[in-house]
Each structure stands twice: as C-alpha cells, then as structure tokens.
Amino acid sequence: MTTTTATGTTTPSAATTASTAAPTTGIKADFNMFLKLLTTQMQNQDPLSPMDTSQYTQQLVQYSQVEQSVQQNTTLNSILSNLSNQGLTQASGMIGRSVTLNSDVAGLAAGTPAAWSYSAARPVSTLTSSITDASGKVVMTSTMTPNAQGTMAWDGTLADGSTASAGSYTLALTASDAAGNSVPVTIHAQGTVQEVSSANGALTLKVNGAAYTTDKLIGVAATTN
What we know:
Layout: H1 14-19, H2 26-44, H3 53-91, E1 98-101, E2 105-108, E3 114-120, E4 126-132, E5 138-143, E6 149-154, E7 167-176, E8 182-183, E9 185-199, E10 202-207, E11 210-213, E12 217-221
Antiparallel strand pairs: 1-9, 1-12, 2-7, 3-6, 3-9, 4-5, 4-7, 7-8, 9-10, 10-11
C-alpha cells in the first residue's frame, strides 16, 4: 500500500472522528489508527489514478484476521489459566495423603524415612539393595530377605553409624532366581504429600521433600497413623 502525505487541511471523516472520541489501547488502538491512515489515504489519493478498492478491502480483511487471532489467543490463555488454577485446587486435596509414585527416587527428611515398594517379575532367591544419593554416589548397600514383593524404608543410617543428609535418594534392587538368572524388579517410591504447586501449567507434588510431576502418581491412599 502506497502512502500519500497530505499537504493541505482535510476534514476528518466520521470514522476518524469516532476513533478519536475515546482513547483506546492495544490491538484496538492499532486497528483504529490503521483506519485513520486508510481514510486519510483515500481522501488524498490522486483522483486521476485512484487505487483499486479491492486493495483496501484486502488490507482490512487481513488486519481483521490478525485482530481476531490476538483476541482468540488472549481468550485461550485465560481459559488455560483458569484450568490450571482449578487443577491446583483439586490437587491440593492430596496434601497429607499417602501416595505411590512411578519412580525409584524417594525423599529422605528429618524424622521421615525414604520409602519404596517393589515387585519382582517372578520368585527370587537373592535380593540386594543399593542406595545412591543425588550425585550418584552409593551410600548404602544391604542384603534383603528374598521376597518377590514388599516394601523398604531407609531412615538414612549409614554403614559407619552416621546419618545421611536430607534429600532425594535412588533405590536399585538386584535379584536372581534359584538358577542364578537375573529377575527384573519394579520399584515405586512412597510417601506423604506435603505440598502441591503449579508452574507453567504443570502440577508438582512435594513428597518427603522430593518433587514429582503428577504424571508419576499411580496411587493415593489415606494416611494411617
């Protein structure tokens, strides 16, 4: 679109007067400014070589589509924000509940042991546990009773009698059957939900000091005293 600068005094059109009657902001203000420029251009174009009216129509349609897209995005963001707030409110009902998580990482806190449940694919004859800290260092190993399924709680006691610091710890279990063949073992972290938070539309649960996204949640139960 070619813009012609007006050199004389022109009389504002009805559209121009309406657009300046009240101040506007955002996309609406830009749209009103566009209409003012377009009106001025039409008033001051060369009468011997007028622009094709289809060009004006096309420009108006394109700008209108942009305006609609921006408004739709604003509406969608508002809807997503409301849904996120609703999800957070609903998830807050899990605070104080005992949960099971699809993770081999459990939180160890003062007075609260790190806890896991496990299940072997078939009966086992030997079962050994290994616990590592957040840096990947092995801090504890032990030989366990060879049950195909069960639970394990670790209060942080180390081999030298000292106590591990609070944090997240990973459990690994090595199992074998009577023939000495390796047996896969599935591990799930357990604990009590202390906090629920939301960031960028994602809900996070804090369980014994460790953080998990809600997609890790596989079970919720009432906490037993």
